[in-house]
Write a structure and sequence with these properties.
The chain is an alpha/beta fold. It is built from 14 helices and seven strands. Bound molecules: 2-acetamido-2-deoxy-beta-D-glucopyranose. The site of 2-acetamido-2-deoxy-beta-D-glucopyranose has 4 residues, from loops. Keywords: Disulfide bond, Glycoprotein, Hydrolase, Signal.
Protein backbone atom coordinates (compact mmCIF):
# COMPACT_ATOMS: atom_id res chain seq x y z
CA UNK A 1 0.00 0.00 0.00
CA UNK A 2 2.83 2.32 0.93
CA UNK A 3 4.60 1.61 -2.30
CA UNK A 4 1.42 2.28 -4.27
CA UNK A 5 1.10 5.57 -2.43
CA UNK A 6 4.65 6.49 -3.32
CA UNK A 7 4.12 5.63 -6.98
CA UNK A 8 0.92 7.64 -7.05
CA UNK A 9 2.70 10.56 -5.43
CA UNK A 10 5.46 10.44 -8.02
CA UNK A 11 2.92 10.23 -10.83
CA UNK A 12 0.93 13.15 -9.50
CA UNK A 13 4.10 15.22 -9.06
CA UNK A 14 5.23 14.33 -12.55
CA UNK A 15 1.90 15.35 -14.00
CA UNK A 16 1.82 18.57 -12.06
CA UNK A 17 5.41 19.17 -13.11
CA UNK A 18 4.62 18.64 -16.77
CA UNK A 19 1.37 20.54 -16.68
CA UNK A 20 2.58 24.01 -17.31
CA UNK A 21 3.73 26.02 -20.23
CA UNK A 22 6.71 28.27 -19.84
CA UNK A 23 5.90 31.85 -20.85
CA UNK A 24 8.79 34.06 -19.76
CA UNK A 25 12.22 33.83 -18.16
CA UNK A 26 14.59 36.31 -16.64
CA UNK A 27 18.11 35.26 -15.85
CA UNK A 28 20.30 37.37 -13.58
CA UNK A 29 23.82 36.06 -13.51
CA UNK A 30 27.22 36.88 -12.14
CA UNK A 31 30.07 37.02 -14.63
CA UNK A 32 32.37 34.01 -14.76
CA UNK A 33 35.79 33.60 -13.19
CA UNK A 34 37.94 36.64 -13.76
CA UNK A 35 41.20 38.27 -12.91
CA UNK A 36 41.16 40.62 -9.91
CA UNK A 37 40.87 44.35 -10.69
CA UNK A 38 43.88 45.61 -8.83
CA UNK A 39 47.22 44.53 -7.45
CA UNK A 40 47.67 40.77 -7.82
CA UNK A 41 50.67 40.64 -5.48
CA UNK A 42 52.81 38.91 -8.03
CA UNK A 43 50.31 36.40 -9.44
CA UNK A 44 50.08 36.66 -13.20
CA UNK A 45 46.67 36.83 -14.90
CA UNK A 46 47.37 37.11 -18.63
CA UNK A 47 44.00 38.44 -19.63
CA UNK A 48 44.18 41.78 -17.86
CA UNK A 49 42.65 43.26 -14.70
CA UNK A 50 39.00 42.47 -14.14
CA UNK A 51 38.62 40.54 -17.38
CA UNK A 52 37.20 37.03 -17.72
CA UNK A 53 39.69 34.22 -17.71
CA UNK A 54 39.30 31.30 -20.15
CA UNK A 55 37.72 29.41 -17.23
CA UNK A 56 35.18 32.21 -16.88
CA UNK A 57 34.32 32.06 -20.58
CA UNK A 58 33.90 28.31 -20.28
CA UNK A 59 31.54 28.66 -17.32
CA UNK A 60 29.23 30.97 -19.22
CA UNK A 61 29.41 29.01 -22.44
CA UNK A 62 28.26 25.95 -20.46
CA UNK A 63 25.41 27.92 -18.87
CA UNK A 64 24.28 28.85 -22.38
CA UNK A 65 24.52 25.25 -23.54
CA UNK A 66 22.44 24.08 -20.59
CA UNK A 67 19.83 26.79 -21.08
CA UNK A 68 19.55 25.74 -24.72
CA UNK A 69 18.88 22.23 -23.51
CA UNK A 70 16.30 23.39 -20.97
CA UNK A 71 14.51 26.12 -22.86
CA UNK A 72 15.08 25.52 -26.57
CA UNK A 73 15.65 21.90 -27.53
CA UNK A 74 14.50 19.96 -24.44
CA UNK A 75 12.35 16.81 -24.52
CA UNK A 76 9.49 18.58 -22.79
CA UNK A 77 8.12 20.77 -25.57
CA UNK A 78 6.02 22.84 -23.15
CA UNK A 79 9.26 24.23 -21.72
CA UNK A 80 10.79 25.09 -25.09
CA UNK A 81 10.19 28.79 -24.85
CA UNK A 82 12.60 29.99 -27.51
CA UNK A 83 13.27 29.35 -31.17
CA UNK A 84 16.39 27.33 -32.00
CA UNK A 85 17.62 30.29 -34.01
CA UNK A 86 18.25 33.63 -32.29
CA UNK A 87 15.21 35.87 -32.61
CA UNK A 88 15.61 39.44 -31.36
CA UNK A 89 11.88 39.56 -30.56
CA UNK A 90 12.39 36.74 -28.07
CA UNK A 91 15.76 37.41 -26.52
CA UNK A 92 16.91 40.63 -24.92
CA UNK A 93 20.31 40.84 -23.30
CA UNK A 94 21.43 43.62 -21.10
CA UNK A 95 24.72 43.89 -19.29
CA UNK A 96 26.24 46.22 -16.78
CA UNK A 97 28.97 48.43 -18.17
CA UNK A 98 31.83 46.21 -17.06
CA UNK A 99 33.82 44.44 -19.73
CA UNK A 100 33.60 41.10 -17.94
CA UNK A 101 29.79 41.07 -17.77
CA UNK A 102 29.59 41.84 -21.49
CA UNK A 103 32.12 39.08 -22.14
CA UNK A 104 30.10 36.68 -19.99
CA UNK A 105 26.92 37.46 -21.88
CA UNK A 106 28.62 36.83 -25.24
CA UNK A 107 30.06 33.52 -24.06
CA UNK A 108 26.71 32.42 -22.73
CA UNK A 109 24.92 33.38 -25.94
CA UNK A 110 27.41 31.34 -27.95
CA UNK A 111 26.32 28.36 -25.89
CA UNK A 112 22.64 29.17 -26.35
CA UNK A 113 22.88 29.85 -30.07
CA UNK A 114 25.86 27.75 -31.05
CA UNK A 115 27.90 27.81 -34.23
CA UNK A 116 25.82 26.86 -37.23
CA UNK A 117 22.53 28.23 -35.92
CA UNK A 118 22.75 31.60 -37.66
CA UNK A 119 20.80 32.22 -40.83
CA UNK A 120 22.74 31.30 -43.97
CA UNK A 121 23.49 33.71 -46.74
CA UNK A 122 21.43 33.19 -49.92
CA UNK A 123 23.87 32.03 -52.58
CA UNK A 124 22.84 34.84 -54.93
CA UNK A 125 23.96 37.26 -52.20
CA UNK A 126 27.51 35.93 -52.00
CA UNK A 127 28.87 38.21 -54.72
CA UNK A 128 26.96 41.22 -53.35
CA UNK A 129 27.73 40.92 -49.64
CA UNK A 130 31.06 42.66 -49.78
CA UNK A 131 32.12 45.82 -47.97
CA UNK A 132 33.26 48.90 -49.91
CA UNK A 133 36.91 48.08 -49.30
CA UNK A 134 39.58 46.42 -51.35
CA UNK A 135 39.80 42.95 -49.87
CA UNK A 136 43.25 41.41 -50.05
CA UNK A 137 41.97 37.83 -49.93
CA UNK A 138 38.39 38.08 -51.21
CA UNK A 139 38.28 34.91 -53.32
CA UNK A 140 39.89 32.83 -50.63
CA UNK A 141 37.68 33.92 -47.79
CA UNK A 142 34.46 33.76 -49.80
CA UNK A 143 35.25 30.21 -50.80
CA UNK A 144 36.00 29.30 -47.24
CA UNK A 145 32.78 30.83 -45.91
CA UNK A 146 30.43 29.24 -48.42
CA UNK A 147 26.94 30.30 -47.32
CA UNK A 148 27.93 30.93 -43.71
CA UNK A 149 27.41 34.64 -43.09
CA UNK A 150 30.35 34.62 -40.71
CA UNK A 151 32.77 31.83 -39.98
CA UNK A 152 31.14 28.58 -38.85
CA UNK A 153 27.68 30.14 -38.89
CA UNK A 154 28.25 32.01 -35.68
CA UNK A 155 25.29 34.05 -34.49
CA UNK A 156 26.21 37.54 -33.27
CA UNK A 157 23.73 38.63 -30.60
CA UNK A 158 23.19 42.17 -29.38
CA UNK A 159 24.28 42.82 -25.82
CA UNK A 160 22.97 46.18 -24.68
CA UNK A 161 24.56 48.24 -22.01
CA UNK A 162 24.19 51.79 -20.80
CA UNK A 163 26.80 53.83 -18.99
CA UNK A 164 26.86 53.31 -15.22
CA UNK A 165 25.97 56.95 -14.83
CA UNK A 166 22.74 56.64 -16.80
CA UNK A 167 21.69 53.05 -16.26
CA UNK A 168 18.83 53.45 -13.85
CA UNK A 169 18.12 49.76 -13.61
CA UNK A 170 21.07 47.50 -13.42
CA UNK A 171 23.75 49.88 -12.21
CA UNK A 172 23.98 52.76 -9.76
CA UNK A 173 23.02 55.46 -12.22
CA UNK A 174 19.92 57.57 -11.99
CA UNK A 175 19.74 57.27 -8.23
CA UNK A 176 21.77 59.88 -6.36
CA UNK A 177 20.34 58.55 -3.10
CA UNK A 178 22.10 55.20 -3.50
CA UNK A 179 25.36 56.79 -4.63
CA UNK A 180 25.32 59.20 -1.67
CA UNK A 181 24.44 56.41 0.68
CA UNK A 182 27.35 54.40 -0.59
CA UNK A 183 29.74 57.37 -0.22
CA UNK A 184 28.56 57.97 3.34
CA UNK A 185 28.96 54.36 4.39
CA UNK A 186 32.18 53.43 2.73
CA UNK A 187 34.37 55.13 5.35
CA UNK A 188 31.98 54.98 8.27
CA UNK A 189 33.55 52.96 11.10
CA UNK A 190 30.13 52.39 12.66
CA UNK A 191 29.18 50.32 9.64
CA UNK A 192 32.33 48.26 9.50
CA UNK A 193 33.63 47.99 13.08
CA UNK A 194 31.24 45.22 14.20
CA UNK A 195 32.29 43.07 11.24
CA UNK A 196 35.92 43.86 11.90
CA UNK A 197 35.48 42.75 15.51
CA UNK A 198 33.79 39.56 14.36
CA UNK A 199 36.20 38.48 11.63
CA UNK A 200 39.54 39.76 12.98
CA UNK A 201 40.07 36.95 15.51
CA UNK A 202 38.78 34.37 13.03
CA UNK A 203 40.80 35.03 9.89
CA UNK A 204 42.83 38.27 9.80
CA UNK A 205 46.08 36.66 10.96
CA UNK A 206 45.89 34.05 8.23
CA UNK A 207 45.15 36.59 5.51
CA UNK A 208 47.89 38.86 6.79
CA UNK A 209 50.33 35.98 6.65
CA UNK A 210 49.27 35.09 3.10
CA UNK A 211 50.08 38.62 1.96
CA UNK A 212 53.00 39.24 4.30
CA UNK A 213 51.16 42.08 5.99
CA UNK A 214 50.73 43.18 9.55
CA UNK A 215 47.20 42.14 10.68
CA UNK A 216 46.84 45.58 12.30
CA UNK A 217 47.03 47.08 8.82
CA UNK A 218 44.02 45.08 7.67
CA UNK A 219 40.44 46.18 8.15
CA UNK A 220 37.22 44.46 7.19
CA UNK A 221 36.22 47.33 4.93
CA UNK A 222 39.45 47.01 2.96
CA UNK A 223 39.76 43.25 3.02
CA UNK A 224 37.88 42.60 -0.20
CA UNK A 225 40.91 43.10 -2.41
CA UNK A 226 42.71 40.32 -0.57
CA UNK A 227 39.86 37.85 -0.35
CA UNK A 228 38.87 38.60 -3.93
CA UNK A 229 42.39 37.86 -5.15
CA UNK A 230 42.35 34.65 -3.13
CA UNK A 231 39.12 33.55 -4.86
CA UNK A 232 40.57 34.30 -8.29
CA UNK A 233 43.82 32.49 -7.52
CA UNK A 234 41.96 29.56 -6.03
CA UNK A 235 39.71 29.22 -9.07
CA UNK A 236 42.62 29.30 -11.47
CA UNK A 237 44.61 26.82 -9.38
CA UNK A 238 47.20 29.45 -8.48
CA UNK A 239 46.58 29.74 -4.76
CA UNK A 240 49.81 28.99 -2.97
CA UNK A 241 50.12 31.90 -0.55
CA UNK A 242 48.73 30.09 2.42
CA UNK A 243 47.23 26.67 3.09
CA UNK A 244 43.83 27.55 4.49
CA UNK A 245 42.02 24.77 6.31
CA UNK A 246 38.53 24.06 4.95
CA UNK A 247 37.05 25.86 7.90
CA UNK A 248 39.24 28.93 7.36
CA UNK A 249 38.44 28.95 3.67
CA UNK A 250 34.71 28.93 4.44
CA UNK A 251 35.26 31.99 6.61
CA UNK A 252 37.15 33.78 3.82
CA UNK A 253 34.32 32.94 1.42
CA UNK A 254 31.59 33.96 3.83
CA UNK A 255 32.87 37.53 4.19
CA UNK A 256 31.85 38.30 0.61
CA UNK A 257 28.08 38.75 0.94
CA UNK A 258 28.41 40.69 4.20
CA UNK A 259 30.87 43.06 2.54
CA UNK A 260 28.57 43.61 -0.43
CA UNK A 261 25.40 44.03 1.60
CA UNK A 262 26.93 46.48 4.04
CA UNK A 263 27.92 48.88 1.29
CA UNK A 264 24.31 50.02 1.24
CA UNK A 265 21.74 50.85 3.89
CA UNK A 266 18.67 48.59 3.99
CA UNK A 267 16.70 51.22 2.07
CA UNK A 268 19.27 51.55 -0.72
CA UNK A 269 19.65 47.80 -0.81
CA UNK A 270 15.92 47.47 -1.35
CA UNK A 271 16.00 50.06 -4.13
CA UNK A 272 18.90 48.35 -5.87
CA UNK A 273 17.02 45.04 -5.79
CA UNK A 274 13.68 46.49 -6.82
CA UNK A 275 15.33 48.06 -9.83
CA UNK A 276 15.66 44.48 -11.03
CA UNK A 277 12.39 43.15 -9.63
CA UNK A 278 10.12 45.92 -10.97
CA UNK A 279 10.90 45.40 -14.66
CA UNK A 280 10.78 41.63 -14.18
CA UNK A 281 7.34 42.00 -12.60
CA UNK A 282 6.07 44.24 -15.40
CA UNK A 283 7.41 41.87 -18.06
CA UNK A 284 5.69 39.00 -16.27
CA UNK A 285 2.40 40.90 -16.42
CA UNK A 286 2.99 41.68 -20.07
CA UNK A 287 3.68 37.99 -20.79
CA UNK A 288 0.43 37.10 -19.02
CA UNK A 289 -1.48 39.50 -21.24
CA UNK A 290 -2.25 41.92 -18.42
CA UNK A 291 -1.71 45.67 -18.31
CA UNK A 292 1.81 46.63 -17.46
CA UNK A 293 3.92 49.73 -17.04
CA UNK A 294 5.24 50.40 -20.53
CA UNK A 295 7.35 53.32 -19.44
CA UNK A 296 9.17 51.19 -16.92
CA UNK A 297 10.08 48.41 -19.33
CA UNK A 298 10.59 50.40 -22.49
CA UNK A 299 14.34 49.74 -22.46
CA UNK A 300 13.88 46.00 -22.06
CA UNK A 301 11.64 45.50 -25.12
CA UNK A 302 9.21 42.68 -24.56
CA UNK A 303 11.25 39.50 -24.69
CA UNK A 304 10.49 35.93 -23.69
CA UNK A 305 13.99 35.64 -22.33
CA UNK A 306 15.63 38.53 -20.53
CA UNK A 307 19.27 38.13 -19.59
CA UNK A 308 20.70 40.64 -17.12
CA UNK A 309 24.43 40.06 -16.98
CA UNK A 310 25.53 41.40 -13.61
CA UNK A 311 27.72 40.92 -10.56
CA UNK A 312 27.81 39.27 -7.16
CA UNK A 313 26.81 42.71 -5.93
CA UNK A 314 23.34 42.74 -7.47
CA UNK A 315 22.73 39.06 -6.79
CA UNK A 316 23.56 39.43 -3.12
CA UNK A 317 21.14 42.33 -2.67
CA UNK A 318 18.35 40.71 -4.70
CA UNK A 319 18.67 37.45 -2.77
CA UNK A 320 18.68 39.35 0.49
CA UNK A 321 15.43 41.07 -0.45
CA UNK A 322 13.78 37.86 -1.66
CA UNK A 323 14.96 36.20 1.58
CA UNK A 324 14.40 32.56 0.56
CA UNK A 325 13.62 30.19 3.45
CA UNK A 326 15.47 27.20 2.13
CA UNK A 327 18.97 28.50 1.44
CA UNK A 328 21.41 30.78 3.16
CA UNK A 329 23.64 32.67 0.76
CA UNK A 330 26.97 33.78 2.21
CA UNK A 331 29.00 33.55 -0.97
CA UNK A 332 28.06 34.24 -4.58
CA UNK A 333 30.26 32.09 -6.78
CA UNK A 334 31.44 33.09 -10.23
CA UNK A 335 28.78 32.40 -12.86
CA UNK A 336 26.00 32.13 -10.30
CA UNK A 337 22.59 32.11 -11.94
CA UNK A 338 19.25 33.35 -10.63
CA UNK A 339 16.31 32.47 -12.86
CA UNK A 340 12.72 33.70 -12.70
CA UNK A 341 10.33 31.48 -14.67
CA UNK A 342 6.72 32.35 -15.42
CA UNK A 343 4.55 29.28 -15.97
CA UNK A 344 1.02 29.09 -17.35
CA UNK A 345 -1.03 26.28 -15.85
CA UNK A 346 -1.87 23.83 -18.57
CA UNK A 347 -5.61 23.53 -18.16
CA UNK A 348 -8.25 24.19 -20.78
CA UNK A 349 -9.50 27.23 -18.85
CA UNK A 350 -6.02 28.73 -18.73
CA UNK A 351 -5.09 28.14 -22.35
CA UNK A 352 -5.69 31.71 -23.51
CA UNK A 353 -6.46 33.31 -20.19
CA UNK A 354 -4.68 36.24 -18.61
CA UNK A 355 -6.24 35.53 -15.19
CA UNK A 356 -3.89 35.69 -12.20
CA UNK A 357 -4.89 32.18 -11.16
CA UNK A 358 -3.51 30.68 -14.38
CA UNK A 359 0.09 31.59 -13.60
CA UNK A 360 2.81 30.81 -11.16
CA UNK A 361 6.40 31.95 -10.75
CA UNK A 362 9.35 29.77 -9.97
CA UNK A 363 12.64 31.27 -8.83
CA UNK A 364 15.74 29.14 -9.03
CA UNK A 365 19.19 30.02 -7.71
CA UNK A 366 22.06 27.85 -8.90
CA UNK A 367 19.53 25.10 -9.54
CA UNK A 368 17.91 25.32 -6.11
CA UNK A 369 14.22 26.27 -6.42
CA UNK A 370 13.65 28.98 -3.83
CA UNK A 371 10.89 28.91 -1.30
CA UNK A 372 9.95 32.53 -0.61
CA UNK A 373 8.34 33.51 2.67
CA UNK A 374 5.30 34.94 0.88
CA UNK A 375 4.68 31.81 -1.18
CA UNK A 376 2.95 28.65 0.00
CA UNK A 377 5.17 26.46 -2.16
CA UNK A 378 8.11 26.53 -4.55
CA UNK A 379 5.68 27.08 -7.39
CA UNK A 380 4.59 30.51 -6.22
CA UNK A 381 1.18 31.50 -7.54
CA UNK A 382 1.27 34.81 -9.33
CA UNK A 383 -1.02 36.28 -6.68
CA UNK A 384 1.34 35.26 -3.91
CA UNK A 385 4.35 36.48 -5.82
CA UNK A 386 2.82 39.88 -6.52
CA UNK A 387 1.67 40.08 -2.90
CA UNK A 388 5.17 39.28 -1.71
CA UNK A 389 6.75 41.96 -3.87
CA UNK A 390 4.07 44.42 -2.71
CA UNK A 391 4.90 43.55 0.88
CA UNK A 392 8.23 45.34 0.39
CA UNK A 393 6.06 48.39 0.51
CA UNK A 394 7.54 50.48 -2.25
CA UNK A 395 6.10 51.46 -5.61
CA UNK A 396 8.12 52.32 -8.66
CA UNK A 397 7.21 56.00 -8.29
CA UNK A 398 8.16 56.05 -4.61
CA UNK A 399 11.47 54.50 -5.55
CA UNK A 400 12.15 57.24 -8.08
CA UNK A 401 11.15 59.84 -5.51
CA UNK A 402 13.63 58.48 -2.96
CA UNK A 403 16.36 58.22 -5.57
CA UNK A 404 16.03 61.93 -6.35
CA UNK A 405 15.31 63.10 -2.82
CA UNK A 406 18.96 64.17 -2.61
CA UNK A 407 21.26 65.92 -4.99
CA UNK A 408 24.48 64.05 -5.65
CA UNK A 409 26.91 64.76 -2.78
CA UNK A 410 29.77 64.81 -5.20
CA UNK A 411 30.14 63.96 -8.84
CA UNK A 412 30.20 60.22 -8.54
CA UNK A 413 33.30 58.54 -9.81
CA UNK A 414 31.62 55.74 -11.71
CA UNK A 415 34.94 54.23 -12.63
CA UNK A 416 35.62 53.77 -8.94
CA UNK A 417 32.10 52.55 -8.27
CA UNK A 418 32.18 50.04 -11.07
CA UNK A 419 35.33 48.55 -9.60
CA UNK A 420 33.34 47.87 -6.51
CA UNK A 421 30.75 45.92 -8.43
CA UNK A 422 33.31 43.09 -8.59
C1 LIG B 1 50.93 24.21 1.28
O1 LIG B 1 50.98 22.80 1.31
C2 LIG B 1 51.73 22.21 0.27
C3 LIG B 1 51.57 20.71 0.37
O2 LIG B 1 51.74 20.26 1.69
C4 LIG B 1 53.18 22.68 0.35
O3 LIG B 1 53.93 22.13 -0.70
C5 LIG B 1 53.21 24.20 0.26
O4 LIG B 1 54.52 24.68 0.42
C6 LIG B 1 52.31 24.83 1.30
N1 LIG B 1 52.25 26.27 1.05
C7 LIG B 1 52.44 27.19 1.97
C8 LIG B 1 52.37 28.60 1.49
O5 LIG B 1 52.64 26.92 3.11
Amino acid sequence: MHRLGAILFILVSLISFIQSKLEFITEVCRHGARAPHGDTFGTVFENGPGMLTPSGFRQHYLIGDELRNRYITGMDKSQNLLSPRFNPEEVYVRSTQSLRTVQSAYAQLLGMFPLGTAEDLRSDQIDVSIPPLNMHDLEEIITELGTDAVQDGMQPVTVKNYGQSVDSFIAYGGCPYIVNDYSRRVDDPEVWQPHDDHYRPLIFNQIAEAFEKDPDDLSFMKIYKYSDLLFAENFEGKLDRYNFTNEEWEIVRSMQVTLLIEKLSPLSSKILSLRYIFPIMELIKSSMGQDYNKELVKNFRNPKFLLLSSHDYQLSHILKLLNPENIEVTHIEYASVLIFELHRRDTRACKDSSEDACFYVKIIYNDVPLKLPGCSSIDCSFNEFRGYIESFDMTYNQMIEICFSEAPLKIPNYEEISQLLS
